[in-house]
């Protein structure tokens, strides 16, 4: 398997892990908020007290799903922003190094530069 495919697969797995963990945390946070608001509203508003248990459960579930979605999306966007920054930093370094050597920094040249410069790093990580 090529290095870029391995890197992509590893990146997807990391993004999935980050998103899953944040989704669970967001769902728990949303559930706590939903239950808390339902209890407070139940004891402070007579109209809400007359509502069915199913309706109150629906409101708590709505808060839970909202927390899950917002938590997962926020974490994934933050992760993508960090990855984009890292990728841009590497590409910027590659363009500068290639320009110093008098090579036009095309996509192919940047890919070759990345392979040449990442090989020592990968070998040192394996040892």
Q: Can you give the mean pLDDT?
A: 89
Ends: how far apart?
20 Å
Number of strands: 0
Detail the poorly predicted runs: none
Number of helices: 4
| Apparent shape | rod-shaped
Helix amount: over 70%
Instruction: Sketch the topology as an H/E string, one letter per element.
Output: HHHH
- In the residues, how many domains can be counted? 1
**Structural class designation:** mainly alpha
Main beta sheet: none
**Regarding quaternary structure, how should these chains be classified?**
single chain
Outline of the structure:
Keywords: Membrane, Transmembrane, Transmembrane helix. The chain has 127 residues and is mainly α.
Topology:
Blueprint: H1 3-44, H2 46-49, H3 53-100, H4 107-126
Helix pairs in contact: 1-3, 3-4
Characterise the protein shown here.
By secondary structure, the chain is mainly α. It has one domain. Helix content is 90%, strand content 0%. The chain has four helices and no strands.
Identify the notable features of this structure and list them briefly:
single chain; 127 residues; mainly alpha
